[in-house]
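Weekly structure sync, notes
Attendees: PL (lead), two postdocs, one rotation student
Agenda item 3: pending single-chain targets
PL asked that the sequence for the first pending target be pasted directly into the notes so everyone works from the same version. It is reproduced below exactly as submitted, 381 residues in total.
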Amino acid sequence: MTRVSRILTIATAVLCLPLLASAATLQAKVVQVESGNSLVVSNINRPLRIRLKAVVPPESGQAFSEAARDHLKALVLDKPVFVEYTHLAGGYLEAKVILNGVDIGSQMLRDGVAWYDRSSSYELSESDRAFYVQCEQAARNEKRGLWQDPAAVAPWEFRQAQLAKLQATVSSPSLQSSKRRTASARSTGLSNSDLLGGMVAPGAIAGNPSFRQISPNSAPGEWISYQPASRRFSVRVPGNSNEYEYPVLDSDKKIVNINYVTGSDDSSFYVVMWTRGANDGNTDASVAAETIRGLLDGINKNLERMGLSLRVTAGPGRDLKLGDFSGKQYRLSLGSLSAFVRVFSKQLADQREVFMVGAFAGPGAEPSVQFLNSFKLRANQ
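Predicted structure, written out during the meeting:
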């Protein structure tokens, strides 16, 4: 399997897994508040660490960081709550916390002590996402809490600024020689452990990854047409979709970009991924087979890490043709969940261009063939 194809499938597995986990609810008592979006609850004398979904307080060092923690403490400490969670990430259960019928995440946004993070809101329902937007906007309009500052900096932007300062320090001339020696001993591309350990590992990427919301002003439930200028395809995606790009080194030690777009609605998760890199002697058939094998392996390893006994399987692929690309469609099954994944590829001289399109449906829903069919490839120009 090509290094590029392997990266593509592992990234999909990491992205999709949180949405393949069904939501569950437990009742517990809040025994500790760690920050403005993380707390510890006790359930039958067992402590569980919880993180509020899509709610991000100011970083340590930013104004209102301590105020956010104190506010969350005042709301929930020593009180019984309902925790609606889906999966474990970084030692925390990603969850909504409900107290007396009130969503505490939305309350933190309404009181102006946290930001709504659209990039991590994919597990919220469409109505929850719309409500979170309204809560944050109301706090902004009333200049509550952190919104007293008209130039308030989002925590993710603050982290990027701090990282840039660190990178500038590390890249000083006195450190260049040792940095080059360290880099030469590293792998020339992303490994499974790099991606499964958190998507981005130091030295694994050939440049700065980029992220953007495709249509930040889209209405809840709106679908839009997406057509990147640098690629010859178009597809209909949810308005909440995000676009990512990771520059990596392929097996020829050339920089290639791993690109993907992800979005969701109330019942399903959607992904489009594409890249072009060294062919490594592959054929259309071998790329499709190895891509789906890598995807299954990545998801199953994540399920195992989460302590779940479920395993995802795929049926035999069905041959497809899209323009001058050959492809396969696979149906994936995971308990009551299912997905359709289509893989298209074509050899171009000594390189190969690969596309993956997937619709992952929640319990009781069917994968959207309409989404898959909206993916169109233009002829070579």
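Discussion points:
- The chain has two domains: 3-19+188-377, 24-122.
- The two ends are 28 Å apart (CA to CA).
Action: rotation student to compare against the earlier draft before next sync.
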